[in-house]
What does this fold into?
Amino acid sequence: MNIWDKIEKIAAKSFKPPASVAKEAQKALNYREKYKDEVKAGTRVGWIRANQLANRENISLDTIKRMKNFFTRHKKNKAIAPDKKDTPWKDNGFVAHLLWGGDAGEKWANNILNRIGFEAYCS
It folds into this structure.
């Protein structure tokens, strides 16, 4: 098997989110269920992602790359703003971070991509 065959095989994999990732995404879904229109965060894609993660659906490698890109772009927004400590569901950056699996999702996506990179080029 040549390197391109290995890369294609790896790219076709999907990955089940761990419970820690599902728990973070579920927090955002719970905020929206409880606080309804007070939750302004997230795009349609973000809410779809939260449902996928919370339900522990298999996630494609392409989506995991998107997760990494999201976390890289929004790193500054992940902490709850001081003025929103009592109402975290109103902090758009924090809720968006949860939609994509929170800190657990970031760690999971990075771990997979690091492992895949290693497998693709070293096996």
Q: What stands out?
A: Residues 3-122 form one domain. The mean pLDDT is 91. The longest strand covers residues 14-15. The chain has one domain: 3-122.
